[in-house]
Amino acid sequence: MKLTRGGEYGIRGVLYLAQQDNGKVNMLSAIAKAQDVPPRFLAKIFQALAKAGIVKSHRGAKGGFSLGRPAEEVSIKDVIEAIEGPIHLNVCLMGPGECSRDKVCPMHKVWEEAQEKMMGVLRDKGYLVEREGAVWFAASQLGQEKDHVLIRSNGKPTYLASDLAYHYDKFFLRNFQRVVEVWGADHQGHVAAIRAGATALGIDAEALDIIIHQLVTLTRGGDIVRLSKRTGEIITLREVVDEVGPDACRYFFLARAADSHMDFDLELAQRQSVENPVYYVQYAHARVAGILMFAAERGVDYADGDVSLLTHPAETALIRKMLLLPELVEGIARTLEPHHLPHYAVELATVFHDFYEKCRVVSDDESLTKARLKLVAACRTALARTLALMGVSAPERM
Fold first, then answer.
1. In this structure, are strands 208-213 and 179-184 parallel, antiparallel, or unpaired?
2. Tell me: the pLDDT tens digits for 106-125?
């Protein structure tokens, strides 16, 4: 297994507590500062540790954390499992590097069969050649600059062979009608070979979409969070979700076009202010829900509201913005460009907030109240559906 940043921080936090005087209560901020850990992230980690009984939470002005049981009774395994769940093997035990196709793994038979069938198709169509003891894909016959090795001279398949087998399995064994793949920018040079292989296999070019996604830079308070695969300094997506929450992750990752570089500000994603677009949109939905709840408590029935009364510029602007949603969703599905949805969500929230400031919804004018409540209910539907399409929650209260 690989230790996540959350697991590492948990171990460091518990070790810090173990080094303090027996029973001493330590403030979370002091632990975070001593271990150079983001306080909010550490708070979530310590919640999990407290639930497992490894640490004890103390409330009050002088509250904080202490060990929940004697240090000699706490193992590293206990800490890791409290934070990350039961430990399971997630790497191949056959050794590092490429898959050896050993018969021990039940998946090998599946991929071997797919690879053999894929190679058979290429061979029958004349796209395989043997030279230098290896088996090559003759991509040059399809206009590519060079051919590519599929089976090395030692008999082991290359990544390209596995990738082509994967596509063969999807299109011909599982009968996919369309495949959309998202690749990192560091794999862009592999696209031409895959497309040539797909063409050679008889896959319709329009049935395979490959989206190249630019890399993401994590920042915290304006400072870049340094990562290095070579030294093992990495932050997993799971750790980002643990720190900022799934709503912020989904919104921020959707908010940029795939071909645009992204700076993910971990502090901004957690900020509860209008500067955070996730908070801003969710707050609009909560405000809408609050208005409707207020009206319901007073027994206002707006089912027969006359929307022809909605003539204020702020009202008509909100109506026009809501009417754009169906067309927007259709365009996103056609172009595979979901980044338009988060931007629309902010625009819709902005227009609603403007309407809220300029148009009193529940007033002494019964007819206008009903009409505006009907508009607010429609806005709630639009906001909720927009948030749901992004996988972001729509809170009733904030």
1. parallel
2. 666 777 888 899 999 999 99
In whole angstroms, what is the distance from residue 382 CA to residue 322 CA? Answer: 6
132 and 184 assigned to the same domain: yes
Q: Which tokens hold the place of 103? A: 């018969």
Q: In terms of residue numbers, what domain contains 29? A: 5-84
pLDDT band, very low/low/confident/very high, at 231 (cuts 50, 70, 90)? very low
Any domain includes 95: no
CB atoms within 10 A of CB 12: 17
322 and 361 fall within a common domain: yes
230 and 170 both lie in a single domain? no
Interatomic CA distance for residues 393 and 285, integer angstroms: 10
Residues 295-346 pLDDT 10s: 999 999 999 999 999 999 999 999 999 999 999 999 999 999 999 999 999 9
Q: Which helix (H) or strand (E) holds 179?
A: strand 179-184
- Name the pTM for this structure: 0.72
Last residue of a domain, one of 177, 210, 243: 210
Tell me if 93 is assigned to some domain.
Answer: no
Rounded to whole angstroms, the Cα distance separating 69 from 65 reads 12
